[in-house]
């Protein structure tokens, strides 16, 4: 019973506060238009927010698709390099048939060696060349 009394008192206090804020009857009548304006603005804000979120979701999905495609491409390249290395090893083994072990090792390492240019394209002819 006491809780109900407190609820009634709170409602009455709220009505008194509104009556103080809006003392004129015209202002009291404008409450419905203020409420309608608030609801319209809230709906517009919600629609704008939904549009922004949808755009960000689309961009995130496109980014994930791009990453997935890149990952597939990188995996394919990795497999290709492994295959190339196998073919190179097979070619070296076939070339080494009948040669000494040292000659085969040099052939194998030769594909990783640096061959200096007689001319540096940026600096021109080298002093030693």
Characterization of this structure:
The model has no long low-confidence stretch (mean pLDDT 77). The longest helix is centred in the middle third of the chain and has 66 residues, at 31-96. Strands 1-2 form a two-stranded antiparallel sheet. The chain is mainly alpha-helical. α3 (31-96) packs antiparallel against α4. 78% of the residues lie in helices and 3% in strands. It has 4 helices and 2 strands. This is SNARE-binding exocyst subunit S6.
Give a brief outline of the structure:
Helix content is 78%, strand content 3%. The protein has four helices and two strands, in the order ααααββ.
Order of strands in the sheet with most strands: 1-2
* Unreliable residue runs: none
Sheet-strand content, in percent, reads: under 5%
What Rg do the Cα atoms give?
41 Å
pLDDT average, as an integer?
A: 77
* Strand segment tally: 2
Task: Report helical residue fraction.
Answer: over 70%
Series of H and E elements: HHHHEE
Overall geometry: rod-shaped
Largest sheet: 2 strands, antiparallel
Q: SS-based structural class?
A: mainly alpha
User: Termini separation (Å)?
Assistant: 108 Å
Number of helices: 4
């Amino acid at each position: 019973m006491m809780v109900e009394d407190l609820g009634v008192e709170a409602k009455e206090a709220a009505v008194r506060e509104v009556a103080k804020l809006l003392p004129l009857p015209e202002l009291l009548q404008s409450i419905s238009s203020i409420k309608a304006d608030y609801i319209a603005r809230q709906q517009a804000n919600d629609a704008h927010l939904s549009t922004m979120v949808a755009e960000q979701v689309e961009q995130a999905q496109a980014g994930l698709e791009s990453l997935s495609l890149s990952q597939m491409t990188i995996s394919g390249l990795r497999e290709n390099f492994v295959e190339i290395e196998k073919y190179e090893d097979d070619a070296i083994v076939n070339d080494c048939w009948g040669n000494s072990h040292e000659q085969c090792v040099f052939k194998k390492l030769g594909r990783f060696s640096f061959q200096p240019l007689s001319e540096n394209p940026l600096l021109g002819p080298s002093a030693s060349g």
